[in-house]
Every structure is written in C-alpha cells, then in structure tokens.
Amino acid sequence: MTNNNAIPTSSQASPAVDHESISRAKQHIKDGLATRRPWKVMFDFHSMGLPHNVSDAFSRIKTNLAYFRSSYAIVVLNVIFFSLIWHPTSLIVFAGLVFLWIFLYFLRDEPLKVFRFQIDDRAILIGLSVKTIVLLLLTNATFNIVAALVAGAVLVLIHAVVRKTDDLFLDEDAATTETSGLTSHPSS
C-alpha cells in the first residue's frame, strides 16, 4: 500500500548555497570598508588641539570634511539609527536606506555613471542625505530626526575643528576637486 500524503525526504529539497558568491560579497565589503579612513587616525589624541584663529578653524573643517567624509557619514547615520530605536516604522525605512548607502556610497569600486555623466562622491553623499532625511521625515518621527541631525552635525563639526590637519594627506584628485558634482566624461 502506498502513502500519497507522505512528506518527501529528498536531500535536494533546498537549493545549494553558492559559496563563491558569498566569498566575493565578503571580499567586496572588506575592500569597500578598507577605503574608509581608519578610526585610529580619526581619533588620534596627539592630533587634537584648538585652532589658533577662525581661518585656521575653517581650514581644518574643510580639510577634515574631505578627508574623513565617509567616517563622518557613518557617525551621523549611527546617531540617526539610535534616535529611531523607539520608532519601528522609521527604523524599517532607515534599514532600507542603509542598504542604499552601503551599495551607492560606501562599497562602490568605480565612479557612478549615469548616461554620459560621472557623478561625484559629494553629489552622491548629498543626494543620499536628502533622500534619507525626506523619507524619514515622512514617517512622523520629525523631532527625533531633526535632533539626531543636529547632534550628528555638532559632533562632526567639533571633531573637524579640533582635529589637526598637519598629518593628513589628501590625494591630488580630492585636493583639487571641482565644485560641481557632475562632470562630463565620455562613456567607454
């Protein structure tokens, strides 16, 4: 007698895990995070000190914002995350936005090109920031988001003013970047 209602017990019931794809993804994440400036350099206490005058403070802000750009973005995103702990809807939206940040800003190997235009990192940073703020404000956690943005901006500015720039070296491209975020490059 055959039992047609029995549960099949095949060893091929679940698809095989592609270890090569997982390995490539892990390496891609490691390589992407390696381009970020080390936290040890960012928080080197021997490189901290008050600026001598206002122009020195503005110079430090400009240099540190360029040098620690992705580290500052991580700091602000963490402040926003912790401010949304008690707002689950906002936290879900933020989790989705974090994936956009990871793939469009932190883990890109090559410049982002749309049509024939190469989009600068600053334009991507600004675009993702605006999109994050607008979508989070639509989740009715306005006070938490505004407070988190102010706290994140204050933390970043305090660090940018206090961190000396004598030991920081920007590459030539970053030191001489143009002010517009879009540059025309023929697609190859």
TrEMBL record:
Its main location: membrane. Keywords: Membrane, Transmembrane, Transmembrane helix, Transport. GO terms for biological process: vesicle-mediated transport. It is a multi-pass membrane protein. InterPro entries: Prenylated_rab_accept_PRA1 (IPR004895). The keyword Magnesium does not apply. Pfam families: PRA1. The chain crosses the membrane at residues 66-85, 91-107, 145-162. May be involved in both secretory and endocytic intracellular trafficking in the endosomal/prevacuolar compartments. Belongs to the PRA1 family. This is PRA1 family protein. It comes from Arabidopsis thaliana x Arabidopsis arenosa.
